[in-house]
């Protein structure tokens, strides 16, 4: 039986990954931060097979302890401050958690490997935000990184320090450059879920409009459930490496609105959407489109859920959540 330790286990990707690893017979440990964390309580109810360890990416001693207790074959570092817009207002905290946190985890593993007769495989959740001011289209593993937000800069540090530990210490450390990936579990601060939730509420007569920022940004959106499989596949390779994970198809926020509103039978969304200048970011990443041909070739990975299926799935899930909540009253 293999053992995995996941940081960020209460997030969207942590939940999908823990289910995926559990279905493959893994023993799963999850690092959870903070006292009386309500997400940890929910995790204990919905994913009882996960052993919760308390720790914090900023506190290396807690990471050393977590690695010693779990004695993992694989560590997936998904923990981060992950909301790009928030990172301008919290740049130092973001660089600590999202950037230096990666180094803390790598150090904890390195210390463990010095004393244990075991090698640990490490996955770093890198991000397409690192491409920022994109230098070529589509973006692949060799595209120049030009991050445009404190979050992107912190992720770039995490990416390069992962590569550096692989090259310096021969660690089996891989970096997955994941493009946007969504699901019904996506946090409501991210644009897909913000839209699908609002659309469900508009359909049920609970609200009349939605405020958004830049409608012209283009993203390569895939399904998170597909993307966690790619993380696992990276750690099953003999040699650690870096991989872009993406669908290869890009859509604007306007396309997102088209699909989401169509799902509730509204063809023209304009009367329901207004732009709020406060939601425009100080620097934007205009167009992301990933070239995942290396992952397809070397990992045999490819996405299964299309953009349209994904957005429709999210709208339906948000509608169902309201209906079940009303039935429960
Ligand atoms: P992103 O995701 O920044 O790409 O990072 P997000 O969904 O927040 O933004 C996508 C694009 O939508 C535009 N946008 C809005 N975004 C939000 N959140 N709210 C709005 O009201 C709104 N209006 C327009 C944004 O300007 C942007 O262009 C996500 C995160 O999950 C990161 O952690 C991850 O690393 C990357 O994806 C890959």
Automatic annotation (TrEMBL):
Q: Which residues form the NAD(P)-binding domain?
A: 5-314
Any one GO biological process: 'de novo' GDP-L-fucose biosynthetic process
Active-site residues, as the UniProt record annotates them: 156
Protein name per UniProt = GDP-mannose 4,6-dehydratase
Which family is this sequence assigned to?
A: Belongs to the NAD(P)-dependent epimerase/dehydratase family. GDP-mannose 4,6-dehydratase subfamily.
Role, per record: Catalyzes the conversion of GDP-D-mannose to GDP-4-dehydro-6-deoxy-D-mannose.
What EC number is given for this enzyme? 4.2.1.47
Which cofactor(s) does the record list?
NADP(+)
Q: What keywords appear on the UniProt entry?
A: Lyase, NADP
Q: In which domain of life is the source organism classified?
A: Bacteria
Alphabetically, the GO molecular function entries are: GDP-mannose 4,6-dehydratase activity; NADP+ binding
Q: Which reaction does it catalyse?
A: GDP-alpha-D-mannose = GDP-4-dehydro-alpha-D-rhamnose + H2O
> Which CDD domains does this chain map to?
GDP_MD_SDR_e
Q: What class of enzyme is it?
A: lyase
């Amino acid at each position: 039986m293999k053992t995995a330790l996941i940081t960020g286990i209460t997030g969207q990707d942590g939940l999908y990954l823990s289910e995926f690893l559990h279905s493959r017979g893994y023993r799963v440990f999850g690092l959870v931060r903070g006292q009386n964390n309500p997400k940890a309580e929910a995790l204990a109810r919905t994913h009882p097979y996960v052993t919760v360890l308390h720790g914090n990416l900023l506190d290396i001693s807690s990471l050393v302890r977590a690695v010693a207790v779990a004695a993992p074959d694989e560590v997936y570092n998904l923990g981060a401050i992950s909301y790009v817009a928030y990172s301008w207002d919290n740049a130092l905290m973001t660089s600590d958690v999202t950037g230096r946190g990666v180094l803390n985890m790598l150090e904890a593993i390195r210390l463990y490997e010095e004393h244990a007769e075991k090698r640990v495989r490490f996955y770093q959740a890198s991000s397409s935000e690192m491409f920022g001011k994109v230098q070529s289209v589509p973006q692949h593993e060799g595209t120049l990184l030009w991050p445009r937000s404190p979050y992107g800069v912190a992720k770039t540090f995490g990416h390069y320090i992962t590569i550096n530990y692989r090259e310096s210490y021969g660690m089996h450390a891989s970096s997955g450059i994941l493009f946007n990936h969504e699901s019904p579990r996506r946090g409501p601060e991210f644009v897909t879920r913000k839209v699908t939730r609002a659309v469900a509420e508009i359909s049920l007569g609970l609200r009349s409009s939605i405020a958004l920022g830049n409608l012209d940004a283009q993203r390569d959106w895939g399904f998170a459930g597909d993307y966690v499989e790619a993380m696992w596949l990276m750690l099953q390779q003999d040699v650690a490496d870096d991989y872009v994970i993406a669908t290869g198809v890009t859509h604007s926020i306007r396309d997102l609105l088209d699909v989401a509103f169509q799902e509730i039978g509204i063809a023209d969304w304009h009367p329901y959407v207004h732009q709020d200048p406060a939601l425009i970011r100080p620097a934007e990443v205009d167009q992301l489109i990933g070239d995942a041909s290396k992952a397809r070739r070397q990992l045999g990975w490819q996405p299964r859920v299309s953009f349209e299926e994904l957005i429709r799935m999210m709208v339906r899930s948000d509608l169902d959540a309201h209906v079940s909540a009303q039935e429960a009253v």
